[in-house]
Amino acid sequence: MPTRFWLALLLFAAPAAAQDAEPAAPDEPGVRYGAEFLATGVGARALGMGGAVVAHVGDVTAGYWNPAGLDGLRQTEGAYMHAERFDGAVSFDYAAVAVPLSDRSTVAVTLVRSAVDDIANTLDALDPATGLPRPDAADYITYFSAADHALFLSYARRVSDALSVGASAKVVQRGIGDFASAWGYSLDVGAQLDLGGVALGIAVQDATTMNQVWSIDEALFEQLEGDERPLGLDTRVRPVLRLGAASARSLGADVALTLAADLDVAFDGFAANALNTGDVSYHPRVGGEVVYRDVLAFRAGLSDLTTNEDYGTQVTPSVGAGVRLGALSVDYGFGDFGGLTGELGQSHRVSVAYRFGEPRGR
Questions:
Q1: Cα–Cα distance between 338 and 200 in angstroms, integer?
Q2: pLDDT higher for 20 or 359?
Q3: Are 317 and 332 in contact (CB under 8 A)?
Q4: Phi/psi of residue 47, each to 5°?
Q5: What is the pTM of this model?
Q6: Which alpha helices (H) appear in the chain, and where do they start and end?
Q7: Can you list the alpha helix ranges (DSSP code H) found in 204-254?
Q8: Closest CA to 57 of 198, 201, 157, 264
Q9: DSSP characters for 10-57?
Q10: H or E segment and range at residue 64
């Protein structure tokens, strides 16, 4: 079978493998990687800083990172990002728009798609009687996508001059052609606190826990293996607590510096190769940004800290740059080029953002 076909099946098989490796309690479904495609993050600026933005994100990408940060917008903003992973095998697209409704409230819509496209399905090209390719095998080859989609509907509210809160209702749809599909629903919540020279942030991803129920085409697996396969799979994505702190200061009339550190606390039960205490794992991120005259920006960050006996401790570095020309911002991020992740191919992320209308005063 073509490589893309097996890569697509792995997107489905990972939850099943997790179920076998980590049995669930009798009264609840096991923990799965049901929203792993969202873990990469969005926005080349944020990713260039290693994703350490929970405390200070204040643009349209806050709908993903911390919905409270949408309160930082002063005018309508739209953004788009495209990225490719695993040497281009997996494409990732993000689009969002945020609209301030008043001086105290903002709404946003975010769309995410991660997919392996143009996968050749050669199952029908074999003659079931002989097990050999049909004489006209090419006529029986079809193509499909293994794609994950997410929709965020976000709202942010400024409670006081120092405190903002927000929430994102999230819908996830996953599918592997016509072979398998699933839906999931959850809620992200967050807050940001401005203490003057220091900003603090907290966000809870999948605060309500996300349940996904897969519907599987049994005939596919019978054709592949001849064994009876399950018709459905209930998956559960547990909450992730994100904590962050950031400090911004001036280095003169033309230069501004932002330093940030985040810590993700995951209650997923999968602590292999991560800092952990039992079933709770910890994922630190740090990043920095230097901005010159509010036009040019340079960024760097560290994330994905892992440790194991074979490879020791490893981190994934990231770098990025951006330019702001009036209402238009263009950002570039380069990541996954260090440690074990570098062996899976490097990631290039390009995002654009545009601000519309007159800024709102606050």
A1: 29
A2: 359
A3: no
A4: -70, -30
A5: 0.80
A6: 3-21, 44-48, 62-65, 218-225
A7: 218-225
A8: 201
A9: HHHHHHHHHHHHSPPPTTSPPB--TTGGGTT-S-HHHHHTTT--TTT-
A10: helix 62-65
